[in-house]
Design goal:
homodimer, 297 residues, alpha/beta, Rossmann fold, Isopropylmalate Dehydrogenase, 2 domains, eleven-stranded mixed beta sheet, 11 helices, 41% helix
Chain lengths: 297, 297
């Protein structure tokens, strides 16, 4: 499934989007765009006065969407989360609030959206030099995952891929090299993840690693390096060692290649859309469409 | 100075290249190409029989270059290094031998090429979406540098940039974010490196960090994010947290953007050319030209 198909699929069943701390120019404009494209109907939770000012300032149609007035950021997150829990909304969006504050609300034991899974960030990329969309993870939420967290990161990405129609996705655990080196923890983790996959502890996918980026995306490179791998040149999911690496790699693609891109936090009952001030309009829309098409976990 | 200028400069004073463990198809072919382009004259140190077989097999002119016969890898590295020490060669190239074995020979206390500097890898990139060539470091030699090593990595890159005619280069210490977070060691290191630069402990450059990739390469992004930095959108040198990140970022550019690329280990008296089996002909040549134009440290 390519990006255009994802947008088409997302439009099929227009969903309600609960926006936590919506008083943010970029977020409100993206929501209006998404509504106009028939992707979703937003409910804005946040400082009503500020939200209305932003709507007016940007010349957007007034009175179109429900606004839940709540100035306190933590309580606004709680109210936004409860809209999803109470099935008044289908998915969440982060507005003008720290990701950690929203994450805490999502994971609240009494009224949150816990599933027992770790929350992790998945980025979907479609790039002109690669033959299919792929997920990069985690480039936006977990700072330095240990082995257990990486198992969850893989599982979350596999679940998302399955929702996009890709069964048994190929997962590359990225590193600088293909050999295991005890001084490079990411190569040791890769070996363990591969073993867990072989032993059936990580299911519904084919895991290989450590693999370099070139082997991950190029069968030719794998042949040159004499690396035999079902994942080589055909990865659906690329797992990076940590957030610094993932973020730098993602930004390199976003700034220096022709690509489409969408980023969402998954693992809770509902996906959480994260858009950045520096994303372009197209990518903001893609993130909303991607989250809408993932649906409930 | 752009890549084409570097090649022109390298041709001005044709240098002698000492090749350690030259019995490698890719390396020998690259040396012949570089010789034909007037970049250097190689001396092959390694298994003479194998070297001659490779030359014959590839239909290359026989008897053109000096061959020093030495089957033992460590001793071949020693002999190749001594050619540079004895001023019979100007720079080194890694053939069919582990980087660590060659590194050990280069750093030998009695007959090596020590300068007191750390050895580090610098990659020079020229990419169509950025306005000038830049150095990425370290994406090929140092696995996980600590703060002291990063000081040396910055110094080595600044020295190389100065040799290319760039005085007072702008250095970005890359991370996922612009804020210092104690859970992200690269952001703490970045803050320290910036401070050392301000205090005059890292000289002849402008260091800023932590900076995200987007702020590093885009003034627009810096403006959006309200980051004030002389380095923003105009970095000459990008310092990555570790080799995994650097390698993945470098390969993303090499495989998915239009770029020219050259990689060399510096810090010893003479630069060491490293080419990879998967580099294309152009990039192999660029690495030799880049090393030739750096000259002695």
């Amino acid at each position: 499934m390519r990006f255009d198909d994802i947008v088409v699929k997302a439009k099929e069943s227009k969903k309600v989007l609960s926006v936590a701390c919506a008083d943010d120019d970029t977020v409100i404009k993206a929501c209006y765009d998404a509504y106009r494209e028939n992707l979703c109907t937003p409910i804005f939770v946040g400082d009503k006065k500020k939200i209305e000012e932003i709507i007016e300032k940007n010349g957007l149609e007034e009175g179109l969407f429900e606004i839940v007035d709540e100035k306190d950021r933590a309580i606004a997150c709680e109210k936004a989360v409860k809209l999803v829990r109470d099935e008044k909304a289908d998915f969440l969006m982060k507005g003008f609030v720290d990701t950690s504050v929203l994450g805490k609300a999502v994971l609240n034991k009494e009224w949150g959206l816990r599933t027992g899974n770790l929350l992790s960030h998945v980025s979907l990329f479609e790039i002109d030099r690669y033959h299919k969309p792929f997920i990069l993870t985690d480039s936006g939420f977990i700072i330095k995952p240990d082995l257990d967290m990486k198992v969850n990161i893989v599982n979350n990405a596999v679940t998302v891929m399955r929702k996009l129609g890709v069964t048994n996705p190929k997962v590359s655990i990225l590193a600088a090299i293909e050999k295991v080196n005890p001084d490079m923890v990411e190569t040791v983790d890769a070996q363990n993840l591969k073993k867990m996959n072989t032993e059936g502890k990580i299911k519904d996918c084919i895991v290989d690693g450590p693999l370099s980026f070139d082997v991950t995306v190029s069968k030719e490179s794998a042949k040159h390096k004499k690396v035999e791998s079902d994942v080589a040149g055909d990865a659906d999911i690329m797992v990076v060692p940590d957030i610094a690496c993932g973020n730098i790699m993602a930004k390199t693609m976003i700034y220096w290649t022709n690509c489409k891109f969408a980023g969402v936090i998954v693992g809770a009952k509902a996906p959480v859309v994260l858009i950045s001030r520096s994303d372009n309009e197209k990518n903001k829309m893609m993130s909303i469409a991607f989250a809408a098409s993932i649906g409930k976990f």
